[in-house]
Design goal:
By secondary structure, the chain is an alpha+beta fold. It folds into 2 domains: 174 residues, Penicillin-binding protein 2a (Domain 2), CATH 3.90.1310; 387 residues, 3-Layer(aba) Sandwich (Beta-lactamase). The strands form 7 sheets. Strands 2, 3, 4, 5, 10, 18 and 19 form a 7-stranded mixed β-sheet that branches. Strands 12-11-23-22-21 form a 5-stranded antiparallel β-sheet, with helices on both faces. A 3-stranded antiparallel β-sheet has the order 1-8-9. Helix 16 packs across helix 17. It starts with 14 loop residues before the first helix and ends with a helix.
Length: 663
């Protein structure tokens, strides 16, 4: 067995093998020393050249190229809102620090042009030494940018500074037409007005810029241009808007009210020439409350109070607030009765100064005696309207409210439109139907009244109210034209003609005389409505009219909510007077010129003035009970008038009040 065992040979590590291994190690060591020596040499001698070469091979993506938001123009091309190009100053510390010769001239140039402290800039560059993007300043103008770029051309050692494009929204007229135009918040988000409603049209698509540095560290860019937003041409006439707002401001200074709203429109196509109220705001600084509150009041507001104050200031009274229209609704009551042949222009009514309906004595502003249909509007006779409402019945009356687009949005191209509040037919009991016939016990918006009134004076065609005329590209090509077309026929041509004549006589001889404008054919209807709670005796007074009445080209609606002057708070005279002042100034701008008198066909019966006065004409007064008119009547009168009005007891319309409070 031992002899069968294999002998294991062990080779010895001989001397010549050790010598070979030592030689290989020595060669490798020398090679490593040579490489390290070369790297140190290159780093000391050619570092700048190699860093530039590395930087030149590094591509980068800059900030996006922002699109230009489209402008908003008035109907004549006047700019109401625009986006002006500004620039953000961008520095690249990594580039500036590639050579110590770049730092000082670059910092000095930034300091001299932009007024930045050199120590601050230097500190920032060193702190962000590895950064390729630091925004130093925002929204500088092109003239300053040009000044800096000229320095760059003169001094090639100014490195690592470039300019990022941006746009700043600008409103040249400040607070003019603020509720119609609206404003933009961060990110080109439209808020209120045309800015919000047409946000997608006004916005465009961002572009991109790609770039790299050449061996001399010059920035080479490749741009994919942005697509700009469309321009929106509004129906607003800036001259008309300015005049309206000036008259509102004057009214607030002299008399004052909680809210004043005015709409001027074209009845033949639904275009709005002006829409204004007394709570405008600065579009360039929409969060500024200083026009309505002093510094102490603003400082004392918490976030909730401030938000409420801002929303009140931004809210468009003309489309977002609802109220009872009062006697300005009477033309619609008459129109529906004419359409249903329940009355004719020859129909007469008996006004004894009061009418008992549903257990309530509802009174008029006077005892008018016998009146024609036209006189029922001229004298604003409540018993006449109540008789018409009774003849129509609740179902028909409610159908015509829908027919005139009350209780629903008109679809005007502005955000925040309210629907109004109507009682359903089964809730229109005798007393509710009676008061509804002359514009109480339901709520409307100003724009609903303008749309409906325009239809009854233009021949019967209902045009959707709108504030935008067309949309065009930034090159002027038409994208969309707002072609006006009638969406409903509300009344016949005969009914429209009768109403125009009656409304003309209302201004010439009736309750709306202060609305007259010398040389013009003005027609319209006044309104005085008592607000809830009735016992507070607060009123909304108004006037709605058209010019000229033989061929209406302009509709104007003035609503004044809670006049501050106690002696005038229930008088529609403040509304008619304001209307006259506005019309006198705006009609020439609208190319509506004086024409003289017109011979209308409406015939008025002869009235014994002395007898009418004995019956109580003109004897209205605040709190009048009517006992002097009919001494045996109970003292529970409901009264309305276009000059003064008595209160409706709150208990009469509890259901409607609950509906109002719920909304």
């Amino acid at each position: 067995m031992a002899r069968q065992k294999e002998k294991v040979k062990i080779k010895k590590f001989k001397g010549y093998m050790q010598a070979k291994l030592l030689f290989v190690f020595f060669v490798i060591l020398c090679a490593m020393i040579a490489i390290i020596t070369r790297l140190v040499y290159l780093n000391n001698q050619d570092r700048e050249r190699y860093e530039k070469r590395v930087l030149s091979q590094q591509t980068f993506l800059s900030s996006t190229i922002p699109y230009k938001r489209g402008s908003i123009l008035d109907r004549n091309g006047v700019v109401l809102a625009s986006s002006d190009k500004v620039y953000n100053v961008i520095i690249e510390p990594k580039v500036i620090l590639t050579d110590e010769e770049y730092l000082e001239p670059t910092v000095e140039a930034l300091s001299s042009v932009f007024g930045i402290d050199t120590a601050e800039v230097t500190s920032l560059i060193h702190e962000k030494s590895t950064s390729s993007y630091q925004r130093l300043l925002k929204q500088v103008t092109i003239d300053v940018v040009d000044q800096f770029e000229n320095l760059q051309k003169e001094n090639k050692k100014i490195k690592g500074v470039w300019f990022e494009e941006e746009y700043k929204r600008n409103y040249p007229y400040g607070n003019l037409a603020s509720h119609v135009i609206g404003y933009t918040s961060a990110g080109d988000v439209g808020t209120w007005g045309i800015e919000e409603y047409y946000n997608s049209n006004l916005n465009g698509t961002n572009g991109r810029v790609y770039g790299f540095y050449d061996p001399e560290l010059n920035l080479i860019r490749t741009r994919k241009e942005a697509i700009n937003g469309h321009t929106v041409v509004s129906t607003i006439d800036i001259n008309i808007q300015r005049i309206v707002e000036e008259h509102i401001a004057k009214f607030q200074d002299e008399i004052g009210a909680n809210n004043v709203g005015v709409i001027v429109s074209n009845p033949n196509n639904g275009e709005i020439y002006a829409m204004a109220n007394n709570k405008g705001f600065d579009l360039n600084n929409p969060y500024d409350l200083s026009a309505y509150y002093d510094e102490v009041e603003i400082a004392s507001m918490d976030e909730k109070d401030k938000e409420k104050a801002l929303n009140t200031m931004w809210r468009n009274f003309s489309i977002s607030d609802t109220y009872e229209p009062g006697s300005t609704f009477k033309p619609f009551t008459v129109a529906s009765a004419l359409e249903e042949h329940l009355v004719t222009p020859e129909t007469t009514f008996q006004c004894d100064g009061v009418k008992r309906v549903g257990g309530w004595n509802i009174k008029c502003n006077a005892r008018h005696g016998k009146v024609t249909l036209a006189q029922s509007l001229m004298k604003s006779c409540n018993p006449s309207m109540m008789a018409i409402g009774e003849a129509e019945g609740a179902a028909m009356f409610r159908t015509y409210q829908d027919h005139f687009f009350f209780g629903k949005k008109t679809g005007i191209d502005l955000p925040g439109e309210a629907e109004g509040i109507l009682l359903p037919a089964d809730k229109l009991h005798a007393s509710e139907l009676a008061t509804s016939s002359f514009g109480q016990t339901f709520n409307v918006t100003m724009i609903q009244m303008v749309g409906a009134f325009s239809s009854v004076v233009n021949g019967g065609q209902y045009y959707q109210p709108h504030v935008v005329k067309e949309i065009v590209t930034d090159q002027g090509a038409t994208v969309e034209e707002k072609e006006p077309y009638p969406i409903n026929e509300t009344v016949s041509a005969d009914t429209s003609e009768f109403l125009r004549e009656a409304l003309y006589l209302t201004v010439q001889e009736g309750t709306a005389k202060p609305a007259q404008v010398e040389g013009y054919l003005v027609g319209g209807k006044t309104g005085t409505a008592q607000k809830f709670p009735r016992s507070a005796k607060k009123y909304v007074v108004s006037f709605i009219g058209c010019v000229p009445t033989d061929d209406p080209q302009v509709v104007i609606y003035v609503v004044i909510d809670e006049v501050h002057d106690e002696t005038k708070k229930a008088s529609s005279t403040v509304a008619t007077t304001l209307t006259s002042q506005i019309l006198k100034d705006i009609l020439p701008f609208l190319e509506v010129y004086p024409e003289g008198e017109i011979d209308y066909k409406v015939e008025l019966p002869m009235v014994d003035e002395s007898k009418e006065n004995q019956n109580g004409e003109g004897q209205t007064g605040e709190g009048q009970t009517g006992e002097g008119q009919q001494g045996n009547q109970e003292n529970n009168y409901v009264g309305f008038d276009d000059t003064q009005a008595d209160a409706i007891p709150d208990t009469m319309t509890d259901e409607f009040q609950e509906t109002q409070e719920g909304n």
